[in-house]
Amino acid sequence: MVKYRKGGIKVDKETVSMVLENIMDLNEAAKYMNLSKAQFCVLLENHKITPIKDHFYYKGDLDDYMHRCYSLNSKNVKEALLYYTMQTFCNDNEKETLHLLHTLEIEKQFDLHDPFFKNLEIICSYLHIQEASFYKKYAQMEAYFMNLPSGTLIISKEDGLYPIMLKDEKDAPYFLFVLGDLKLLDSFTIGIVGSEHPREDEIKKALYLCDYCINKEMIVVSGLERGINTYLALEIMKRKSKGIFVLSCSFLDFFPKENKQLYEYMIENGLVISQFIYHSYQSSMIESRNLTLTALSNSCILLGGKDHHELTDFGYEALRQNKLLLLPSSLKKSYMHFPLELNEGGGKYFSNMVEFKKLLHCT
Q1: What angle (nearest 5°) sits at the alpha carbon of residue 286, between those of residues 284 and 289?
Q2: 125: Cα within 13 Å, side-chain hemisphere
Q3: Beta bridge partners of 39
Q4: What is the pLDDT of residues 261-309, one digit of tens each?
């Protein structure tokens, strides 16, 4: 075998080749991690990844970071396990859990990063529960985590990959479960939510708006529930395009079951996000999901009006977050009062695509 000598060290050709194969520039490193350059740079700024020299990165360091995000034994995942176990003592409610976490941080100097046994003592003492009770819930939660789909990325609010548009929201979920293409988060996004029982004209309008977004390289953000949201996902799949879908359920108990093919397509070709580890359906889950969906959208569109509770919650959330909220003028004729309230709160009516484009391009 041919040997090369440099600085008194023998280096064979195979070793040189192997080293070069494991060194990547910034573009290669971002692509390897399925991130945009901007997202990769956020990791650098947060010192999550360190270059070996200038703008070159060692593949092993990238693998180590991804392992910390995926592995059940990683610090990040263990903290998520602790957090979601705490949530079971907070009625499985995100807001209540965040409030408990904030209270413990102030009153008890609690820190999710601290050793488990230190945190266990603080939690049990504050909640007046037995450690055995907490351990039982923790073991159940560990089983949920072990059954997450292969490739699930668990992102903490303190992580550099956590969506910037969501991070500043007071009640934003502390952890996200993510499957798919994170680069989509750097796109211009349009949040669209609609009725579960849409009329034909609402379906037609939804598909037209979806096609417009695809043609303009804007990314649709929606859920995967029945009705308008399903039609949007079907159109995205038909066009072989991409979308961001924020679930109101967990990866472990996906529903509706008939949309499983859409769910699997979006994992491979888009981005699927959940903030829930297991399914315990309650209205607060929809409210929490709507907060996340809205925050990930640059502008929002509400279609339909029969299922008014979930739809109006999305509309009010969009206005609370100061997002442009667009409402089809057909809602003016609705017998329900919420369209008027949303319009008075800042929502904008549009009656045709000319008005829609004009309003959208003002943002």
Answers
A1: 105
A2: 10
A3: none
A4: 999 999 999 999 999 998 655 666 888 899 999 999 999 999 876 545 6
